[in-house]
Amino acid sequence: MVSELQTWTILGLVALIWLPLSVVGFVNGGPTAILAMSDILAVVVVIVSAFERWGWRWRRLHPRPVGTPVVRGTWRGALASSWKDPITSEVRQPKTVYLSIRQTLTSVWVRLLTDESVSDQVVGSVKRDPSSEDWLISYTYRNSPQLPLRKTSPEHKGGAFLTIYGEPPRRIVGEYWTGRETAGTLEMDMHVPEVAQSYLDAQALFANQTEDG
Length: 213
Known about the structure:
8 strands; 3 helices; alpha+beta
């Protein structure tokens, strides 16, 4: 599995190789040789950066040598919450939500889209649990309800802990909690590779998938 540490190790090795070669190049070929070595280093850095951003997602690299699962895209599923409506005191039925994920080899950004609000990740990661060997998405978020709803559902912060199932991933299931002393569950079982920006975008993506299917 290629990790962030390994990525930076590769860059470090390239630098260590380039430094003595540049010295030798200066002795034997002068500044022109150093410029040639600098060009090589630049190419290597570009290749490593491209791999970290895109290349690592190539399916033939999974699950070995790259272990990190590719969850990038938009996931559809259900959210069940313990939150009670302050007017009716009723707990709502599970609702359809979308999890929009951007991902590189060493980073992840998650946005939860509902018909009432958007929850954007503040800090997060995709890591393997050393005890269970499950891959997990863990993140904290900031929730912003639509303006007309903020009187009964104010802005808040929270966190989520989700388990990724399958290789390639087929489901994302887990729990979340909020600063309003509520909690709930998420179960996502449908996926498209495109990354939705809004709830309506996500609905359209899955409507298109249904039509194509």
